Amino acid sequence: MARLALSAALLAMVVIMLGAWTRLVHAGLGCPDWPGCYGFLTVPQSESSIAIANARFPETPVDVSKGWPEMIHRYAAGTLGLLVFGLAGYAVRHRKAGVPAKLPLFIAGFIILQGAFGMWTVTLKLWPQVVALHLLGGFTTLSLLVLLTLRLRNRVGNARPTASCGALRAVRPWLYGGLFLVILQIALGAWTAANYAAVACTDLPTCQGQWWPDGMDFRHGFDVTQHVGPNYLGGQLMASGRVAIHVTHRAGAVLVLLYFTGLLVALWRRRRGSGLDRAIQLVALVLTAQIALGIANVWLNIPLSVAVAHNAMGAALLLSVIHLIWRHHRLPLAHRAPVPHTNTLNQEVAA
After folding, report:
1. Does the pLDDT at position 270 exceed 60?
2. Are residues 201 and 238 in the same domain?
3. Cα(154)–Cα(71) distance, rounded to whole angstroms?
4. Residue 272: pLDDT above 90?
5. Is the bond preceding residue 35 a cis peptide, omega within 30 degrees?
6. How many domains are contained in the chain?
7. Quick check: 330 and 236 in contact, CB under 8 A?
């Protein structure tokens, strides 16, 4: 079951990357219906199939180059759903043997909700609110599957550090603060992607030649009351709103970098005997790579490979922080003094 959970987590990462690829090649509406494509199980390619498809959806003629990215993403997401349901079924069947069932069942329920958001993404024509929530749902699914994998691997035995790590106790709230910042930054990235604001600033470290661009409209950029109805492919926001979103995402990246620099240095100084060395190094490595990919995105004008890698590395950063917190929770933070036996206490009192 641990191997199956790990396979599902790896596939969830692939689904996230495929979703980024679909969005970046502007294929989010490559198929105007759901779950099929123009009423077919695959993208229509023959002349007769294309004629039928165009008759069904005259406002959105078939574009095979846009249809396949969308359908490949759907096939991968559907396979992931089957894996998750298999995990849940196995857990329920073997729950009396001590296999955890609540988390697999919760993930299965969440996959159903995520599928609904995938449908709404298409039927509501890339409405930014739904697109952003769908992206966050993908990261959530991945995180839950990794947590399940860690729990299952722990059941088959991973040695806990034997050294007392009481000095690390004070760092735990800051770890949760870092996790919150990473989630918030991912949400900003999702909103940036949903509103096509990644290209609002084409220079770095300034934006449009200014440290704080004139005319930024944060109210417009972060308006979550946008109406359902227009086709949001390519975005509907004005330039002032998109620049505000982009600059906020940049500021969030700087905040995450500064926060984790201080946090990881503090952890490294207290790490002796804790076994956290690799977990700390992993967060530092992934964070550095993510910042580098973000810079490359701007300097190279959002190349497809770099943009997809930036999405994947955002997921990797989230997982590395979750892994660090998991390892931190398994530390013996303090030695407990043994409780004296009752007879020993009586003897001491009598003495």
Report:
1. yes
2. yes
3. 37
4. no
5. yes
6. 2
7. no
pLDDT band (50, 70, 90) for residue 97? confident
Which domain covers residue 94, as residue numbers?
A: 1-156
348 in active site: no
Domain boundary among 103, 123, 156: 156
234 occurs within a structural domain: yes
Both 55 and 5 in one domain: the answer is: yes
Given a contact cutoff of 8 angstroms between Cβ atoms, the answer to whether 176 and 22 are in contact is: no
User: How is residue 59 annotated by DSSP?
Assistant: T
- Chain segment 117-162, per-residue pLDDT in tens: 999 999 999 999 999 999 999 999 999 999 999 999 876 555 455 4
Q: Mention every residue, 6+ apart, whose C-beta is less than 8 A from residue 71.
A: 30, 31, 37, 42, 43
Selecting among 47, 59, 70, 348, the annotated active-site residue is 70
Q: What is the mean pLDDT of residues 167-185?
A: 91
Q: 205 preceded by cis ω (within 30°)?
A: yes
Question: Going by C-beta distance under 8 Å and a sequence separation of 6 or more, which residues neighbour residue 214?
Answer: none
Question: Same structural domain for residues 197 and 88?
Answer: no
Residues 283, 146, single domain; the answer is no
Specify whether 181 is located in the same domain as 297: yes
CA distances from 215 to 184, 197, 212, 244 (A): 25, 15, 9, 9
Does one domain contain both 237 and 197? yes
136, 208: one domain? no
Are both 200 and 77 inside the same structural domain? Answer: no
Show the tokens assigned to 186. 């991912």
What tokens appear for 169 in the block?
């106790």
Within a domain: residue 284?
A: yes
Res 43 pLDDT > 90: yes
The candidate with the shortest Cα–Cα distance to 327, out of 177, 170, 167, 159, is 159
Q: What is the pTM of this model?
A: 0.89
